[in-house]
Amino acid sequence: MFTAMKQLQKVMLPLASKDDLSALKSFAITMAIAFPVVFSLLLPWLFSADMPIWPFAVSIVLGILYLVVPHLLYYPYVGWMVIASILGWLNTKLLLGIIFYLLITPIGVMMKALGKLQYKHRVHEPSNWVTRDDKQSQKQKARLEEPF
């Protein structure tokens, strides 16, 4: 359990302080709107399911906490930030890795096999430096001096 907490602290997003009422109120408004939109409208529409009522209850509770005792919003806020931190870690490590190896790598291998890469790999030369002829270099220099 202790190592799990250490791992979570490595990926944890920064938290607002318990006294930062504007951040907690902003969290309450955002979640009170987003929760029913996602869980009562978007997901049931995507999966052709019935519209649940419980997300509206969560929004009402967040609204009451927003109006009456905003400092109690800290605990749902911390819970949400733990979930968001884990999802953020999964997104950056797992999903982007999968996308790279399933999409970008095959494109690179295919382009190399077809000879469509933009660079020329010259094994027998000591450097990949390309020297330009005088006309090209003068044209480039003039373009850099007056770019517009």
Automatic annotation (TrEMBL):
Basic and acidic residues bias locations: 131-148
Domain of life from the UniProt record: Bacteria
InterPro entries, A to Z: SxtJ
Organism of provenance: Brumicola blandensis
Region (Disordered) location: 129-148
This protein's name: SxtJ family membrane protein
Keywords: Membrane, Transmembrane, Transmembrane helix
Positions of transmembrane segments: 21-47, 53-69
One Pfam family recorded for the sequence: SxtJ
